[in-house]
Amino acid sequence: MLLDIVKGFAIGICASAPIGPIAILVIQKSLSKGHKAGFITGMGACVVDTVFSIIAIFALAAAEQLINEHRELILLCGGIVVTILGWSMNASDPLRKLRAREKRQGSVSLTDFLQSVLMGLSNPGAIFVIFALFAFFGIGPLDRSDWRVTPIVLSVSLGSAFYWFVVTWLLSRFGKKFKMRTILWINRITGAVIIVIGLVLIGEGLFRVLFRGASLL
Fold first, then answer.
1. What average pLDDT does range 1-23 have in this prediction?
2. Fewer CB atoms < 10 Å away: N or C end of the chain?
């Protein structure tokens, strides 16, 4: 059982490590608003990883079938959500946030958390990463009555939370060395990258519908 907990902790870290829309969002929040805002954004990703882990344990085959049947709709909706979030980041003013940073250092924003959750749930590829990691570490589908389920899920959550705590702490500390104009450019660039990712998702969804004859429903 201890080995399964260690595997779950490793899955949480590995699932969080890839650089994607959520990681870029966490970087932007950490540099512009500080460690707490970055960490609470990362915790949104942690919640998504936990949900996907539960799905992976209980309904791996059913979840894969559902996603495959509605992939085009998920791609289009997810792409729109990601694009809007990227535009919002690109249009924001991190310099104003940095000037008010000391006043807000002790506070956290529910919006940061919800942005991360929404972005994570709109990315269908993330769940396949979780599935692949569970298969790689040899943790297969478990019965609902199996007592190992709760410790494994909790260990995945702890691994993800640990990863984001360390990363956001390092980013907030390192971010103090950046000039304010550098932060502005980082904000613009990360927002643009997320917009591109969203447009790619939309493009793939439209390509499947228009040229491969796939149905949205």
1. 80
2. C
